[in-house]
């Protein structure tokens, strides 16, 4: 059984040390039988997808922008000075800007998700002495 190897630990090791620790060979790679065995032991190379924040939280997060905070402060000052028209105008502008930014960010996230599903990540790796291209989820340690 091979040891757990973190990226920071491997960065400080020589290629030969990593190669020995991972029981592989940089020229020939590993055999297809070894790939199947490691896939059974470690499973596919998939990332756990973090749960998404709820939409309301993403919307509120848009207010955490220095320019928006400055506008909120200026609306508060206008309100304090009893300039209700100015305070209302600034507040409406803030709501419009934040809503547009939220919608654009939401659409961008959905487009990126669709692209990721359409074009799964691939990798290049040496197996049985040949350079091969395959899905990154089939990469084993």
Automatic annotation (TrEMBL):
Gene source species: Arion vulgaris
Designated name of the protein: Cation-transporting P-type ATPase N-terminal domain-containing protein
The keyword Cytoplasm appears for this protein: no
SMART domains recorded: Cation_ATPase_N (SM00831)
The keyword Transmembrane appears for this protein: yes
InterPro entries: ATPase_P-typ_cation-transptr_N, ATPase_P-typ_TM_dom_sf
Residues of the Cation-transporting P-type ATPase N-terminal domain: 9-83
The encoding gene: ORF40672
Transmembrane segments: 63-81, 87-103
Keyword annotations of the record: Membrane, Transmembrane, Transmembrane helix
């Amino acid at each position: 059984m091979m040891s757990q190897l973190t990226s920071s630990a491997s960065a400080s090791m020589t290629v030969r040390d990593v190669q020995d620790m991972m029981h592989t060979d940089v020229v020939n790679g590993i055999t297809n039988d070894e790939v199947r065995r490691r896939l059974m032991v470690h499973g596919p190379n998939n990332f756990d997808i973090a749960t998404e924040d709820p939409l309301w939280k993403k919307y509120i997060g848009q207010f955490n922008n220095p320019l928006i905070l400055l506008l909120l402060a200026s609306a508060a000052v206008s309100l304090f000075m009893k300039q209700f028209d100015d305070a209302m105008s600034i507040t409406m502008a803030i709501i419009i800007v934040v809503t547009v930014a939220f919608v654009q960010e939401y659409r961008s996230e959905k487009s990126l998700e669709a692209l990721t599903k359409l074009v799964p990540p691939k990798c290049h790796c040496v197996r049985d002495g040949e350079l091969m291209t395959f899905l990154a989820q089939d990469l084993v340690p």
